[in-house]
Amino acid sequence: MSNLAPRNQSGAYIRPNSQFRKFIGTESGNPHPPATGRYKLYVGLGCPWAHRTLVVRSLKKLEAVISVGIVSPSPIEGGWIFNQEEEGCRTLAEFYQKAEPGYSGRSTVPVLWDNQTKAIVNNESSEIIVMLNSEFNEFANNPTLNLYPEELKEKIDWWNEKIYHAVNNGVYRCGFAQTQEAYNQACNELFATLDEIELALQTNRYLCGENLTLADVRLFTTLFRFDSAYYGLFKCNRQRIRDYQNLGAYLRDLYQLPGVADTCDVETVKRDYYGNLFPLNPGGIIPNGPDMSYLNQPHDRDHIGKVQCFMNQINRVAIVGGTHGNEFTGAYLIQKFAQFPNLITRSSFETVTLLANPDAFAAGRRYVEKDLNRCFLKQDLQDPALKTYEELQAKLIQNTLASNGDKQADLILDLHSSTANMGPDNYFGKQPSLKLEIGCLSEPS
Ligand SMILES: N[C@@H](CCC(=O)N[C@@H](CS)C(=O)NCC(=O)O)C(=O)O
Known about the structure:
Layout: E1 39-44, H1 48-59, E2 67-74, E3 79-86, E4 89-91, H2 92-99, E5 111-114, E6 119-122, H3 125-134, H4 153-168, H5 170-175, H6 180-203, H7 214-233, H8 245-255, H9 266-276, H10 304-311, E7 317-320, H11 327-337, E8 344-346, H12 349-354, H13 358-370, H14 372-376, H15 389-402, E9 411-414, E10 435-437
Parallel strand pairs: 1-2, 7-8, 7-9, 9-10
Antiparallel strand pairs: 1-5, 2-3, 3-4, 5-6
The site of glutathione has 12 residues, from helix 3.
Organism: Nostoc cf. commune SO-36
Cofactor: Zn(2+)
Keywords: Hydrolase, Metal-binding, Zinc
């Protein structure tokens, strides 16, 4: 176990640092300039760190620019072996030796290899994905995708730091802990962080908002392995990812991004973890389950960032009425809008009690997120030109800004099934600046 997993004095797992840390770049004198057909990635399909590089390669559409060589674990040799011999080497350890005679560190994947200078450029996944994101744009088929934009760097780095320790490496800290205390600490930190992410994903489609970033890629490859490997083998078993409402859907969202599923191989993940970490699974039996086909089910997260973006621009919201057939949607909307500091609620007792009813929430949530366009494009706007959510959003903001002045609310959400019976009193004695009727809704099919 201690060879498999280095530990400190209290039995906690310590991950060794990667040792090849050069960067591909255009600055003069750099022996590794960006080029097509020159660099190769060596990966093991079970490995979450290597998987990050495959995801970014795929999202940036670099398949024709950077080639891939696959290694598989050999329990007998205790390390990676090439599926096809590379540079005259059968094992990854030989390959490291050939590139750097006398190398005494671990022979890990991923490896970014320069075929021209015959050198390992870098073997640290967090740095390789930064290079793949920015250094190959002149050759990439998806050059405009920027997973590490300047304005989000601080936020991305903040999530990365937290998630690396508690989640990416956290699952290994659970699995390789050699004392009860070390396991307890790692497991508590892991689930406290997953809970925190779950909350953030309630109102953000991705970790840093509407845009997919490197922080999501880094989290994804751990989440993808969680239910099939870490939950069982590493004892990360407080709950599965699919049991989290937001994290489960977020995992499906990322899995379904173009090209991502092609990088995922759950059978290899199970075989590599259960079949090769002998001290944790001496019999080497590989479990049959779990059924991961749910990853292809709808994620319903397309609108999440958009709703938040719209809501951020409204200061004062009133919610009125809402007991006749609209309770589900109303309850859910109230929950969403409750984040506004200046919320004025005028909902009736029945609606408020529904806030405590999880089934009602689920129904309201399904409605709002599945069919947001229809939900907001009800007759009160009466503008047939408004066809899309974006057009509606622009109009709403324009209306609310234009009529701010003496109104109590920037936005009044009328949750009655019909406005026919609404007197002035229902709108706080004023005509609303904007009235949205969320009414006569039936469950989406
Ligand atoms: N910090 C490295 C970690 C890479 C790593 O630990 N890879 C594992 C596979 S999941 C490995 O190759 N282990 C072989 C060994 O330690 O001998 C990175 O992110 O690139």
